[in-house]
Amino acid sequence: MASMAPTASPSWNRYRGRLETYFDRTAFDAWTALTSDAPVSRIRATVRAGRDAMREMLLDWLPGDMSGLTLLDAGCGTGALAVEAARRGAHVTAIDISGQLVGIARERAPSDVTIDWRVGDMLAPELGQFDHVVAMDSLIHYPQADIVATVTALAARTRRSIEFTFAPRTPALTVLHNVGKLLPRSDRAPAIIPAGEASLRAAFASALPGWGQPRCERVSGGFYKSQALELVRP
Q: 44, 52, 111, 175: most buried by Cβ count inside 10 Å?
């Protein structure tokens, strides 16, 4: 594992450890199936469809031609977004805390793309600087303070834009998560911590003065509800 960045908080370390255990041990087989075309339960099918839609939206926000540009896929999972960005010509570094998922990403990556796959922390300073950073559903398990601190740390080494997702704070999402507690353990994921759009926007306006916030859009369907916010360097 890459070393933790000095700005990491105790809560970041705590949640990160839980997620590493979950994705490497508890739910590795489930996530391998979810991110493939294998048959899954109806619940997981809605999550798969939602993740596919979110990934396509984030890719639409990036340049169509990324030749010569660098991108950090922060929390790459099994690598679908990283592969598409590389096909556009980007020099992609894809990192995840789960060595198991990165292993699947390496196996699935087509031979016509080159990606720097890493196992470790997205805040590791040795990753360097990037034109664009994408963090899809990799911060939804953290409190808002950690989301803001993490994205702000990434912004210090991002030249153009950051796209990240958060769990929107809505009554419907609260109901879904309460229902989720009654589901079989095989259908559960680590706790998702909702955040408010207005609160996040205000926090980033303070933490990253001058950065634009041109787009903030939600993907919602079944048991998948996630919202993406784009931050653009002035």
A: 44
Amino acid at 11: S
Which residues fall within 8 angstroms of residue 101, CB to CB, at 6 or more apart?
23, 24, 28, 31, 76, 77, 78
- pLDDT tens digits, one per residue of 68-120: 999 999 999 999 999 999 999 999 999 999 999 999 999 999 999 999 999 99
The DSSP string of 10-45 is: HHHHHHHHHHHHIIIIITHHHHHHHTTTS---HHHH
115 beta partners: 92
Q: At what angle do helices 80-87 and 42-61 cross, to 10 degrees?
A: 30
CA distance 116 to 85: 12
pTM value is 0.88
Superfamily of domain 10-232: Vaccinia Virus protein VP39 (3.40.50.150)
- What is the DSSP secondary structure assignment for residue 4, as one 8-state letter? P
Cβ contact 52:221 at 8 Å: no
Beta bridge partners of 220: 225
Buried/exposed 76-96: b ≥16 CB within 10 Å, e otherwise = bbbbbbbbbbbebebbbbbbb
Residue type, 223: F
Please state, in angstroms and rounded to a whole number, the distance separating the CA atoms of residues 88 and 68.
Answer: 10
Domain ranges (residues) in the chain: 10-232
73 close to 105: Cβ distance less than 8 angstroms: no
